[in-house]
Amino acid sequence: MAEDLYSALGVSRSADQKEIRRAYREKARKFHPDVNKTPGAEETFKRISEAHDVLSDPETRSQYDRFGENFRQYAAADAARSSEQPRRSGGTRYTWSGGGAQSVNWEDLFGGGFGGFGRGADHTAELEITVEEAYRGGRRTVQVASPYGGAQEYTIDIPAGAVDGQRLRIAGAGGAGADGQDGDLLVTLRVKDSKRYRLSGADIETDLPISPWEAALGADVSVPTPGGPVTVHVPPGSSTGRRLRLRGQGMPRRGQPGDLYARVKVVVPRTLSKKEKELFEQLRDVSSFDARRGS
Fold first, then answer.
1. How far apart are CA 135 and CA 189, in angstroms?
2. pLDDT tens profile 99-118
3. What sign has the CA pseudo-torsion 55, 61, 65, 67?
4. pLDDT tens, position by position, 17-45
5. DSSP type of residue 159
6. pTM of the entire predicted model
7. Please, are residues 156 and 141 in contact by the beta-carbon 8 Å criterion?
8. Which CATH number fits domain 123-191: 2.30.29.30, 3.40.50.1370, 2.20.130.10, 2.60.260.20?
9. CA distance 162 to 224
10. How far apart, in whole angstroms, are the C-alpha atoms of residue 161 and residue 133?
11. How many whole angstroms separate alpha carbon 114 and alpha carbon 246?
């Protein structure tokens, strides 16, 4: 006997939509076939995906609560019985086995042309992209696992300036609709910080390594940005942690683009030549600067 859909998600029958979504996301991340290779993980993922598809839609959830696992058949038959429209005859008949061969008129059971269920359910997925991809936009090809097995490949058009949590809709890529109108696939973008860039709203932050003499004397240095290198002036006396603002070099936005902040990071040579060592020693001997006191 198949596990109850509520149990598959680990929620109670009184759970609201927020709890159902949260439970689905947690379990989907744990059992997705791309990350979980243990035996049975794929079947578990299919089951929790099916549970989410059914329970996230108030109509199908109500039918499931009323009729149980075979709610699709019973709900359609119940709707057909209560319909005031004349029953159509001569529907296609199929034979199935189960306790002896029987024949069933599927048109009588589900309504004419398998209708009566309305639009197919929307499916959801998440796509991780880098700050660079979010900045430039572009195309990504993704595979989305079906709740009933297999996977479908889709091409996602990521808009330039995409934001974390933004949803992209692929029409007709969701659940099959009995009346011919399929649901949609809703892809939520998750912008992931990279080794070079960190994102905060529309602003981007990056580290700017500079030498001790550039920090002390000041310098004009090149800063890599997602849109290409930009020259920034490092003021004399800049210490590690100082933020230099480059206006308009952050994420593209309509009307007001974000800014880019270059965080100074003073880097010393790992090894010194004889001459360099002598010069640093001379600086040590003549300087009154005390880093612990900042003067």
1. 13
2. 332 233 333 333 333 333 46
3. negative
4. 888 888 888 888 888 877 788 888 888 88
5. P
6. 0.51
7. yes
8. 2.60.260.20
9. 20
10. 9
11. 60
